[in-house]
Design goal:
The structure holds two protein chains of two kinds. Chain A contains 28 helices and nine strands. By secondary structure, chain A is mainly α. In chain A, the strands form two sheets. In chain A, strands 1-3-4-5-2-6 form a six-stranded mixed beta sheet, sandwiched between helices. A three-stranded antiparallel beta sheet of chain A has the order 8-7-9. Chain A is elongated and about 135 Å long. By secondary structure, chain B is α+β, with helices and mostly antiparallel strands. In chain B, 36% of the residues lie in helices and 32% in strands. Chain B has helices spanning 2-15, 43-56, 64-72, 87-91, 108-113, 116-120, 126-139, 208-213, 215-224; strands at residues 20-25, 30-35, 39-41, 73-80, 98-105, 151-160, 166-175, 183-192, 198-207, 226-227. In chain B, the strands form two sheets. Chain B has a seven-stranded antiparallel beta sheet with strand order 3-4-5-9-8-7-6. Chain B is globular and about 55 Å long. Chain B starts with a helix and ends with a strand. The relative contact order of chain B is 0.15. The chains are: A mainly alpha, B alpha+beta.
Chain lengths: 831, 231
């Protein structure tokens, strides 16, 4: 082994033995000779010309049977001399290249000569060179035409120059024919598109529409703003003389039925300007480009009307049909975003953070997968981005028209005046007020919403209580009714999310109920029935078997009693055990006031009310419970998770949603690595454990509550079994033992009745446990209940509520031998 | 390779002497070669010259019928070998060889009655002259030298070509009526197509001496006369 190879460090190479030697490619100007061409480049043109030549020779031989090869060759030499000349030129060119490649001196001489030429032409400015080139091109074209004409007329090219006009004149008929054909085809398309681009746009002139602002109830704030816009449009000088401009566009957005279109209609009625209504479907066309044509024709019409009447209002209903170009508007228009996105509904937005932090928080909130703390009244479904109709270019055309170039228009103005050397007149002030209405503002294009296009964005929300009262009064004033002011106030209270449309519908439905009952005056009962019908839809005619009916009634009664006892911020709207779809029955509490802030005590009360079903079923059915509590548990758990994990209503402060999103402590915010999620499981476990503890506490509280209100539960269950649907006031009447609007609760205070009801329940429990038909009838309330209660089951003291202990019931589990005449349903025991 | 191809191209060109030019009527599918040195006259020139010649010879002005028939002419071309070429050499007589090619459509009436005899008697009353010459020969004493005064038939061949073309090829000698010492030799090929809708005529004419001295060239011209017909 050589000594120096032994000390060579492994893995290193000496500087002069690089991995691969790389030499930079020589620059063209650094070469002394021309860069050698590859053989193919050298011969390709020559080959092509030779092929053409031989083609001509062979074609001549094929054409002429007496032509020998020699003769054909001879002929072609005479006729196609130019081809041979081209071959010669190509040979010379290639020879020149070949010499340039070999001889540096020769190459240098030619390069110098061309450089001199370049320098000479380079002295001309670009415009002159362009003009010279253009002249040369025209001369070349003229020569070609001249040669063709010379060939046609069989004269020499010089004489043919004189023939060109005559030839062109002779060609006129065919030119006309072609032009006619072209225009004929074009006209069909023009006609077709003209017809297709019509429609979907209606113009109303002042006094065509009778609706006034006084017809819009419960949206006073928005209405005041809109009135302002109308005032500016009617008298633009008011703002323009101070250097301002008339706001050109406003967007009304909000849930359906809140009166956006009515407002627009009122605008049409109030204004002295023409009013153009654009149909939502106007821009969705079968062919590409029709939408663009429609937009253009719409704005042509608008400009005409604006100039003629001094202003015009255009209303785009369901503006989301215009579509967007794909981006989430909420990410770009913060004003609208904060208005529509619940995730940003934090105190003060992010205004007390620095802008950078706020931006980070905002981005994070956009990707937030956290559950919404509470369903909100305006919590529509996010998404639908890039939806909507309108073919390609329609939206862009609309954007361009809304704030396009303020350019001179018209043929006379642009072409004729300019031709006469006059400057085109600038366009007049087109005062166009663009109104748009949508219930999906998030699917509008953000460019549409920028100031200059849409200057003002107004939310048309659910009307407030006063607005609702006003609306009820408005619609009720059109019909006969016996409702007092207090009734209407109450009605407004129990219909918190009512809109103009739903109120109108409710009054109409109540009228239908009244007419069905044979009277034309709407009563409170009609209103209540109509409301139930509207809120819940028609019940299914499916009857429960009696045993189950009782179980469902007890379940709902537990909810109702718990709600009455603990829900201080809500009142019971109604309770029902009528089946509708998968729902066996329910209790519907509604808020007493229009409120925006919720409290821990309220959440807890809601959970207790929700868990009352589970607590009650266990209490009344001897620790048994049905699967019907699943939905209640889900809601309770979700609310408990939000309390514990998100809104600081538990034992910890940190927001679980942030853990998930940022994967801090191994949160599960979309991380794919399973190992990473181990930490997340720990967090979930602890959160889950805390939530479970909280729920257990609340379940215990619910259980105690129901134990204390045992009679009330059974009374409400009884009233539910008897009436199927009971209104909130009647439930209170039953619990408190006084007369309600529809149900008299006084008998429930009677101990005999209570005992009878308790006995009935005891029978039902027995039937439930034994899987037997419930043979006793529902007790009536006249103190002589029809319930067949076994003597032994009756307590000694009839004033005391019946208490059937587990032990007592255990002895009665025997199956009855006969089938006494019960209610005649003849239900068979369910296996 | 390219160099070789270029050499072949240019070399092949060099070996062609260019003695003949090839003339073609694509419309009537007629081909022949004529010596390059001969001056060419095209259809309008020839028709004009013939009209003028007819006027000078006392014929009435061309009638509509004449114009109509002129319109039937589908191809007309002529070549004069005289150093001073002239249309009169074609329409009249001149010892220098001329080549005259005519292609004409036939009217329905002509189609019914055209015959080989018409083809023979296109330029001179060939049949009459031939009979006359034969009669003269029979009247002469047997031993006296043949001395045809005005006419001598040299060759007469019936032609039946591919595509149904039929006609006659004549070679004969005629004395110039104005210059008795001058004889002209006519080499006349006349053909009809199978449908008798078109007639082709090739006339090669020269003074006796000139014809004999140019016999090879003129034979080649006549030999090249080709008509392509669908078989």
């Amino acid at each position: 082994m050589e000594p120096d190879s032994a000390i060579e460090p492994a893995g290193l190479t000496p500087p002069d033995q690089g991995p691969i030697e790389f030499t930079s490619r020589e620059r063209e100007e650094d070469r002394a000779t021309r860069k050698p061409m590859i053989l193919w480049d050298r011969i390709k043109i020559l080959l092509l010309l030779l092929v053409v030549w031989w083609f001509f020779v062979l074609a001549a031989m094929g054409d002429n049977p007496i032509l020998s090869f020699d003769a054909a060759f001879d002929e072609e030499v005479r006729n196609k001399w130019w081809l041979l000349a081209l071959i010669g030129i190509e040979v010379i060119r290639q020879t020149h290249y070949l010499i340039s490649e070999r001889s540096a001196k020769y190459h240098a001489r030619w390069t110098k000569r061309f450089a001199a030429f370049d320098e000479r032409t380079g002295r001309l400015n670009d415009w002159t060179r362009y003009r010279i080139a253009r002249v040369l091109k025209w001369v070349f074209l003229f020569l070609i035409v001249d040669l063709i004409v010379a060939r046609i007329t069989d004269t020499n090219p010089l004489l043919a120059v004189a023939q060109i006009p005559a030839q062109l004149f002779a060609a006129l008929p065919i030119v006309f024919q072609l032009a006619f054909g072209f225009f004929f085809i074009m006209l069909q398309f023009v006609g077709l598109f003209w017809f297709l681009s019509k429609g979907g746009i209606d113009v109303y002139f002042p006094d065509d529409v009778k609706t006034r602002f006084t017809d819009v109830w419960g949206q006073d704030a928005v209405l005041a703003r809109i009135k302002e816009n109308i005032v500016f449009l009617e008298d633009p000088e008011m703002i323009e003389k101070h250097g301002g401009y008339v706001p050109g566009g406003l967007l009304l957005w909000g849930p359906p039925g809140t009166g956006k279109t009515l407002m627009a209609e009122a605008v049409a009625g109030e204004t002295g300007k023409p009013y153009v209504f654009v149909d939502p479907g106007a821009f969705s066309a079968m062919f590409m480009g029709i939408g663009v044509l429609k937009v253009k024709s719409l704005f042509r019409k608008l400009r005409k009307l604006a100039v003629r009447y001094g202003g015009v209002i255009v209303f785009f209903d369901e503006a989301d049909s215009l579509g967007s170009r794909g981006q989430a508007v909420a990410g770009f228009a913060p004003a609208l975003k904060s208005a529509i996105d619940p995730a940003s509904a934090t105190c003060n937005g992010f205004s007390y953070f620095s802008s950078r932090v706020a931006s980070l928080l905002f981005q994070a909130s956009m990707q937030s997968s956290a559950p919404e703390p509470r369903p909100r009244r305006h919590g529509f479904v996010m998404g639908g981005m890039g939806g909507g109709g309108g073919d390609g270019g329609t939206l862009q055309a609309l954007l361009a028209e809304l704030s396009g170039l303020k350019k001179p228009r018209g043929f006379v103005n642009r072409v004729l005046r300019r031709a006469l050397g006059m400057r085109p007149k600038p366009p007049p002030k087109y005062r166009i007020l663009v109104m748009m209405a949508t219930n999906m503002p998030q699917s509008l294009d953000q460019a549409l919403l920028r100031p200059g296009r849409i200057d003002r964005i107004y939310k048309v929300g659910y009307p407030h209580k006063l607005g609702r009262i006003r609306t009820y009064e408005g619609y009720l004033s059109k019909v006969k009714h016996s409702l007092t002011a207090e009734d209407i106030d109450k009605l407004a209270t129990i219909t918190p999310y009512a809109t103009g449309a739903t109120i109108k519908d409710l009054v109409n439905e109540a009228l239908i109920y009244a007419l069905r009952e044979g009277h034309d005056v709407i009563t409170w009962a009609d209103i209540t029935k109509a409301k139930q019908q509207k809120a819940l839809g028609p019940p299914e005619d499916n009857e429960y078997i009696k045993r189950e009916r009782h179980a469902v009634a007890v379940h709902e009664a537990c909810h109702a009693v718990a709600a009455y006892r603990v829900l201080r911020h809500k009142t019971i709207d109604m309770a029902t055990i009528e089946r509708r779809g998968d729902i066996g029955g329910f209790v519907a509490p509604i808020p007493l006031e229009d409120r925006f802030v919720e409290w821990r005590s309220e959440y807890e009360a809601e959970i207790i009310t929700s868990l009352a079903s589970l607590a009650g079923e266990r209490l009344f059915f001897d620790q048994d419970n049905s699967a019907g509590v699943g939905g209640d548990l889900e809601n309770s758990t979700e609310l408990a998770v939000i309390m514990e994990g998100y809104v600081g209503m538990g034992s910890t402060v940190a927001s679980h949603g942030v853990f998930r999103r940022t994967e801090v402590a191994g949160g599960r915010g979309g991380g794919k690595d399973k190992d990473k999620n181990r930490g997340g499981e720990i967090i979930d476990h602890s959160l889950g454990a805390r939530v479970e503890n909280n729920l257990q506490d609340l379940l215990r509280r619910a259980s105690h509550l129901l134990e204390d209100n045992r009679d009330a539960v059974l009374a409400v269950a009884h009233s539910l079994e008897a009436h199927k649907t009971v209104s909130g006031d009647d439930i209170v009447a039953v619990i408190e033992g006084h007369a309600g609007p529809l149900v008299d609760g006084r008998p429930y205070a009677d101990p005999d009745v209570r005992r009878a009801i308790a006995a009935y329940h005891a029978e039902a429990v027995v039937a439930h446990k034994g899987g037997l038909p419930l043979e006793v009838a529902l007790p009536n309330l006249n103190g002589q209940g029809t319930a067949v209660v076994r003597k032994t089951d009756l307590p000694d003291d009839p004033t005391q509520p019946v208490e059937v202990t587990r032990e007592e019931l255990a002895g009665q589990w025997a199956r009855p031998t006969g089938n006494p005449d019960g209610d005649g349903n003849g239900e068979s025991p369910v296996g | 390779m390219v160099a070789v191809a270029v050499m072949v191209t240019l070399g092949a060109g060099a070996c062609s002497d260019g003695k003949f030019r090839y003339v073609t009527s694509a419309a009537t599918k007629t081909y022949l070669k004529v010596p390059s040195a001969y001056a060419a006259f095209d259809q309008p020139e020839l028709l004009d010259a013939e009209a003028k010649a007819a006027q000078q010879s006392g014929d009435p002005a061309p009638s509509d019928v004449d114009t109509f028939i002129e319109n039937l002419v589908q191809w007309r071309v002529a070549y004069d070998s005289d150093p001073v070429p002239s249309l009169e050499h074609i329409t009249g007589f001149n010892p220098a060889p001329i080549i005259d090619v005519r292609v004409r459509g036939l009217l329905d009436s002509e189609r019914d009655r055209v015959s080989t005899s018409d083809l023979r008697n296109l330029f001179v009353p060939y049949d009459n002259l031939k009979r006359q010459a034969e009669e003269d020969a029979q009247q002469k004493p047997l031993l006296s030298p043949t001395n045809s005064k005005d006419f001598r038939a040299i060759d007469e061949t019936e032609l039946h070509l591919d595509g149904g073309l039929r006609g006659v090829h004549l070679v004969f000698e005629v004395r110039d009526p104005e210059k008795p010492e001058q004889f002209y030799i006519f080499d006349q090929t006349a053909l009809l197509d199978a449908k008798t809708s078109r007639v082709w005529v090739l006339l090669v004419r020269a003074g006796e001496q000139e014809y004999l001295s140019n016999a090879d060239t003129l034979d080649e011209v006549v030999g090249s006369f080709t008509i392509k017909q669908k078989v």
